[in-house]
């Protein structure tokens, strides 16, 4: 047992600098702050305020509802024609990323619908270096007979979100069990949910063992994706509509699953460890057909014993058998253990290739010294090339989409320059600097973009007009536009190219007076 003065013990983690409570988390490189109108003097003194009142207001509807699909009559275009959608990332990818972002920072709908506060739910304000705990399950689960809870929490040292798996009422008897976590932390694999740390704590009012993992929003388990009642009903409806009887998982998808899990097991077994969680409820899908093995090291700590090479080899054989059962379950659309192997293989022979059947047959064979994950790769070798090609093709697609968004800040840069110039009270002791010379045209151009009205005097709020004008300004188009003063006494015909030159000149006058520009000039002279 451990003698501690603090409420946490038996920590295994890298050195963490204790910093003040971070209430400004970073999500996808963006820092989110609390509303500025809430002054600190008006903040309630309840330490659970931030857990019961989420600071990130959500829009009344998902933002991706604004993106309509391509119309059918313009789907086939000439080679020189492009759709508006081709200039931006695909709508389905945008929707997926928005959903992940919402799931990460959004307030829990269940918490808003109930009157139970975080304090009444028994959630501490802070556990170790994690705060803003949110319970992700309505009722506790079971892990090897122990009650378990899953939470989402924010680390105050880096502002990132993590998944916390709490084993309730667990007493750690042998401190050497934590050495297993140290080995698991060295494993970094694309198909394994990495473990950050593990520690014991009394912050929940009992002796709890907590595992901290990477957080993957909007992920579901393989069981939820294929074996839950909702998934079964959806699959049945699809098969009826397509007139298909059987083959719930396409073979290409199944081969992709096999390749990913085999790759993860190769890394785990190569490190002298065993997964011990190869089952549908312990493997998650974080995106389309992307699998990750969860609960790394959890079973090893709960069932810790002086590990020998023979025991590790036995657990690795269990991983291979569990792998085979998982393949048969997905192929036969049955989460239950295989009752009759011959009947299952006969079913697979009707819908899948002999190669797939051979892999499952090998994995479900009797354990032996020659049976290893390396032999599995010899069986699936030809399929690895297809998976590698698909992965690289998807990478090319993402890079192409990223290229479309590479310079999406240029409009913001131009609008920033406009605001630096327009309505400036004074520059070089000239209070009318922004109203004279070329700057006057820039002011009229600002009105042309943002302050137009229709024939009824109603403001024209047209985002398309704004984006079109600033894009033409950025490109320096030779198109003529007429700028009119507010009193209609002055009209100027000018091109976007001339306006771009005026803005660049005026902004350069401002920038050359800044300390940064002067320091750069001095360094060049040296």
From TrEMBL:
<dbReference type="InterPro" id="IPR000719">
    <property type="entry name" value="Prot_kinase_dom"/>
</dbReference>
<feature type="coiled-coil region">
    <location>
        <begin position="382"/>
        <end position="420"/>
    </location>
</feature>
<dbReference type="GO" id="GO:0031251">
    <property type="term" value="C:PAN complex"/>
</dbReference>
<feature type="binding site">
    <location>
        <begin position="281"/>
        <end position="282"/>
    </location>
    <ligand>
        <name>ATP</name>
    </ligand>
</feature>
<keyword id="KW-0963">Cytoplasm</keyword>
<protein>
    <recommendedName>
        <fullName>PAN2-PAN3 deadenylation complex subunit PAN3</fullName>
    </recommendedName>
</protein>
<feature type="region of interest" description="Knob domain">
    <location>
        <begin position="421"/>
        <end position="526"/>
    </location>
</feature>
<keyword id="KW-0175">Coiled coil</keyword>
<feature type="region of interest" description="Disordered">
    <location>
        <begin position="1"/>
        <end position="22"/>
    </location>
</feature>
<dbReference type="GO" id="GO:0000289">
    <property type="term" value="P:nuclear-transcribed mRNA poly(A) tail shortening"/>
</dbReference>
<dbReference type="Pfam" id="PF00069">
    <property type="entry name" value="Pkinase"/>
</dbReference>
<dbReference type="GO" id="GO:0000932">
    <property type="term" value="C:P-body"/>
</dbReference>
<feature type="domain" description="Protein kinase">
    <location>
        <begin position="136"/>
        <end position="421"/>
    </location>
</feature>
<dbReference type="InterPro" id="IPR030844">
    <property type="entry name" value="PAN3"/>
</dbReference>
<keyword id="KW-0507">mRNA processing</keyword>
<dbReference type="Pfam" id="PF18101">
    <property type="entry name" value="Pan3_CK"/>
</dbReference>
<dbReference type="GO" id="GO:0006397">
    <property type="term" value="P:mRNA processing"/>
</dbReference>
<comment type="subunit">
    <text>Homodimer. Forms a heterotrimer with a catalytic subunit PAN2 to form the poly(A)-nuclease (PAN) deadenylation complex. Interacts (via PAM-2 motif) with poly(A)-binding protein PAB1 (via PABC domain), conferring substrate specificity of the enzyme complex.</text>
</comment>
<feature type="compositionally biased region" description="Polar residues">
    <location>
        <begin position="1"/>
        <end position="21"/>
    </location>
</feature>
<keyword id="KW-0547">Nucleotide-binding</keyword>
<dbReference type="GO" id="GO:0005524">
    <property type="term" value="F:ATP binding"/>
</dbReference>
<dbReference type="GO" id="GO:0004672">
    <property type="term" value="F:protein kinase activity"/>
</dbReference>
<feature type="binding site">
    <location>
        <begin position="214"/>
        <end position="221"/>
    </location>
    <ligand>
        <name>ATP</name>
    </ligand>
</feature>
<dbReference type="InterPro" id="IPR041332">
    <property type="entry name" value="Pan3_CK"/>
</dbReference>
<dbReference type="InterPro" id="IPR011009">
    <property type="entry name" value="Kinase-like_dom_sf"/>
</dbReference>
<keyword id="KW-0067">ATP-binding</keyword>
<dbReference type="GO" id="GO:0008143">
    <property type="term" value="F:poly(A) binding"/>
</dbReference>
<comment type="similarity">
    <text>Belongs to the protein kinase superfamily. PAN3 family.</text>
</comment>
<comment type="function">
    <text>Regulatory subunit of the poly(A)-nuclease (PAN) deadenylation complex, one of two cytoplasmic mRNA deadenylases involved in mRNA turnover. PAN specifically shortens poly(A) tails of RNA and the activity is stimulated by poly(A)-binding protein PAB1. PAN deadenylation is followed by rapid degradation of the shortened mRNA tails by the CCR4-NOT complex. Deadenylated mRNAs are then degraded by two alternative mechanisms, namely exosome-mediated 3'-5' exonucleolytic degradation, or deadenlyation-dependent mRNA decaping and subsequent 5'-3' exonucleolytic degradation by XRN1.</text>
</comment>
